[in-house]
Specification:
14 helices, single chain, disordered N terminus, Alkaline Phosphatase, subunit A, alpha/beta
Length: 469
């Protein structure tokens, strides 16, 4: 059983840092924290401290209602929203994104994302691949898992990859390690105590099947001192001496190293503190809280104004040493009532992205942290006259990039006058990931990792970094 992680005990009330902050979900036969940390020993590029925040707009954001409006199209295409100017001359977005419009020079607006597999999960937004690719070998790994393998170090204060996606450690497992195996599984904290979000029936069924009570503490019990841990480590070392003497591969020494990092994480408490928003400046918390919408309608499966504090968690985790953080905002699956739901949800995303980008910039982190914002596909240009919804549209979708030293302040690609098809500069998911890898100093078309049969697999078998950025 794969190791998953859970963070419990976090809520609106103050949390004891030494008592109830928890992370790390284990199956009954799952590996321990020390074993998981094997994924974080470096195998190559280790000198960079670049990082990625991958923001998934769960359900598929409507491109016509976000960054690719069609004001000249018929009303059954363009919809209810007006367009507004941005800080980029001649570039317009929907009226629901005024904060992004005000700092559009800090974004790359991709209007031609194509090649969607059409799957209603985040796997392609995590890996660049369809779920069936290399399925017989375990599947392709999520990019965060690759980053763990390539960039992680055994003396890092935090895991290289933390997945905050759906906020529950065992639901909608899109960030999978694939052929890299369970040691590359991300930490998946349970942050459901922070952000109220009703899961869709399918996700609720996943949670019931997989269970919930799998947490281990990531802070020391007050009665367990560092000295006692050292004594236990010494005892284990003495018991393992015979095996270590007989081991000529160095594996026992490596396990000792990973065990030391596990202890180091417990002793430092850096990861636990990063996940404890009760320690954050109240003014910063307010900055990451959107205003309550006076119009529109919040779906039962959509998140509220405080959901963008996930972006704050991502920033804090990167400050603690995490290299790749994935988060999600739900629910963009607007088969019905698209416009009232977008009036509620898009201002939340708009506020959150503005807060994240400007906060990172003020802290001097924006050039080192690359942000990608996207979904699994766009949504139909034509509005369903019966439901008022927009349905799945794999042919074209939107994406945003920011930070990472990219050449921002530009639009890439376009769709036709109705938003049906990409007409210029098609951009694939693998192109975006090739760009993200490059931001980390990795050439995804030349770097390989061995699959379970020992054959080298390129990180990407297709796609090129966006030359414009």
């Amino acid at each position: 059983m794969f190791l998953r992680s859970a963070l419990t005990g976090i809520g609106s009330s103050p949390v004891s840092r030494r008592g109830i902050l928890q992370i790390g979900a284990l199956g009954t036969s799952g590996p321990c924290l020390a074993q998981l940390l094997q994924a974080e020993s470096a195998t190559g590029l280790r000198n960079s401290r670049k990082a990625i925040i991958n923001i998934h707009l769960d359900g598929g954001p409507p491109h016509l209602d976000t960054i690719d409006p069609k004001p000249e199209a018929p009303v059954e295409i363009r919809g209810e929203f007006d367009t507004i100017s941005t800080s980029l001359p001649g570039v317009h977005v929907t009226e629901l994104l005024p904060k992004i419009a005000s700092i559009a020079e800090k974004f790359v607006l991709i209007r031609s994302l194509t090649g969607s597999a059409g799957a209603h999960d985040a796997f392609q937004c995590q890996s660049g691949y369809a779920a069936k690719d290399l399925e017989s070998l375990g599947g392709r790994p999520a990019v965060g898992c690759v980053v763990s393998r390539l960039h992680g170090r055994s003396d890092d204060p935090a895991p290289a990859f933390i997945d905050l996606m759906q906020g529950r450690p065992q639901v909608r497992n899109s960030a999978r390690p694939g052929f890299l195996g369970p040691s590359a599984q991300p930490f998946r904290p349970d942050i459901s105590g922070l952000f109220r979000r009703v899961l869709e029936p399918g996700m609720q069924n996943e949670l019931r099947r997989l269970g919930q009570d799998h947490s281990i503490s990531l802070t020391l019990n007050p009665r367990l001192t560092a000295g006692r841990i050292d004594d236990r480590q010494a005892l284990l070392a003495s018991l393992d001496r015979l095996r270590r003497d007989a081991d000529r591969s160095g594996m026992m020494e490596a396990m000792d190293q990973f065990g030391r990092q596990a202890v180091g994480i417990l002793l430092s408490g850096a990861l636990a503190r990063a996940l404890d928003l009760s320690t954050e400046d109240p003014q910063v918390l307010q900055r990451y809280t959107a205003s309550s919408s006076s119009s529109g309608r919040q779906s039962t499966t959509s998140e509220g104004p405080d959901s963008i504090r996930k972006f704050l968690l991502a920033r804090r985790l990167i400050e603690a040493g995490v290299r790749y953080v994935s988060v999600s905002i739900s629910d963009f699956d607007t088969h019905s009532d698209n416009f009232p739901r977008m009036r509620n949800l898009l201002p939340i995303v708009d506020h959150g992205l503005h807060a994240l980008v400007t906060d990172l910039e003020e802290r001097g982190m924006l050039n080192d942290v690359t942000i990608v914002v996207w979904g699994e596909f766009g949504r139909t240009p034509r509005i369903d006259p019966k439901s008022g919804g927009r349905h799945h549209w794999p042919q074209a979708g939107p994406a945003l990039l920011a930070g990472g030293g990219l050449k921002t302040g530009q639009v890439i690609g376009s769709t036709d006058r109705l938003g049906d098809d990409v007409t210029s500069r098609p951009v694939t998911y693998k192109d975006v990931f090739a760009t993200l890898y490059r931001c980390l100093g990795i050439d995804a078309r030349t770097v390989t990792l061995p699959d379970p049969q020992g054959r080298p697999q390129f990180l990407l078998d297709d796609g090129q970094p966006l030359s414009e950025v």
